[in-house]
Amino acid sequence: MDHRVMKTLIVDDEPIARRVLREELETVPAVIIVGEAENGKQALQQIAALRPDLVLLDLQMPVMGGFEVVRKLGGGHLPVVVIVTAFDQHAIEAFEAGAVDYLLKPVGEKQLRRAVERARKLSESPSAVADEVARIASVETRKIVGRNGEEYVLLDPDEILAFQAEGELVWIVTAKQRFLATQSLRVIENHLKEQQFRRVHRNAIVNVNHVRKMSALSSQRWLVTLSNALQVVVSKRQAHNIRNVLRW
């Protein structure tokens, strides 16, 4: 059976992860590895120069993450994108967004072969590839993954009032209920740094659009009240920044 040859680019900041993918891809029929990139910036350059049919794309990378790479593809060459990640919440996001497939590290040979074959079929329709890229590009800015028991829920950032850490757990607070986060506060803060969320304490991040009142606890510490009446302490270190953001 003839297979369309898939020119493939591997994008991952971890050399070992790239090597594992390279060795496994070498066993897949009709796949040519045209290049490797260790960060998002290199990935964009190589996508433009090498015009691969398939990109195996890690999400958590320095310089530029995987979602930002997809968003910046724009009107140039659009390859099929398969998300590769060690983080379950990103796999769920990619799956819900309609990605052709996602691979969880460590990647198994069977899963990789399946992903390549699905990508091969998708690559026959440029419009389908474009639709998929658009869906993946919208994932990071639109959804936050929360856990409710054994279920994973996709939340719109606008409905999230706050993130609160309790020991090793991080809770996502909405107007109606709480969900268990799948990331640390530090990762969440970086993930949402260009949106309406601000760190107010080492244990809390709030959605400034849901702040309804700010009261002084002392000359240097404040208390913010959110739209669901939840009160969160603002540390001395963060008080000035929060007042500037709120213009209070």
Describe this structure in words.
This protein is α/β, with parallel strands linked by helices. It has two domains: 6-142, Rossmann fold (3-Layer(aba) Sandwich); 145-246, LytTr DNA-binding domain (OB fold (Dihydrolipoamide Acetyltransferase, E2P), Beta Barrel). The protein has eight helices and 15 strands. It has helices at residues 15-25, 40-50, 66-71, 88-96, 109-122, 126-142, 185-191, 236-246, and strands at residues 6-11, 31-37, 54-58, 80-85, 102-104, 144-148, 151-155, 160-166, 169-174, 178-181, 197-201, 204-207, 211-216, 222-226, 231-234. The chain has a seven-stranded antiparallel beta sheet. A five-stranded parallel beta sheet has the order 2-1-3-4-5, with helices on both faces. It has a three-stranded antiparallel beta sheet with strand order 13-14-15. β11 and β12 form a beta hairpin. The longest helix is centred in the middle third of the chain and has 17 residues, at 126-142. It is elongated, with a radius of gyration of 21 Å. The termini are far apart. The mean pLDDT is 85.
Shape: elongated
Measured as a percent range, the helix fraction is 25-40%
User: Beta fraction of the residues?
Assistant: 25-35%
CATH hierarchy: architecture of the largest domain: 3-Layer(aba) Sandwich
Total beta-strand segments: 15
Order of strands, widest sheet: 7-6-10-9-8-12-11
Q: Gyration radius, to the nearest Å?
A: 21 Å
Task: Report the structural category.
Answer: alpha/beta
Give the end-to-end Cα distance, rounded to a whole number of Å. Answer: 69 Å
CATH H-level superfamily of the largest domain: Response regulator
What low-confidence regions span 5 or more consecutive residues with pLDDT below 50?
Answer: none
Examine the coordinates and then state which fold CATH places here, giving the name of the CATH topology of the largest domain.
Rossmann fold
Largest sheet: 7 strands, antiparallel
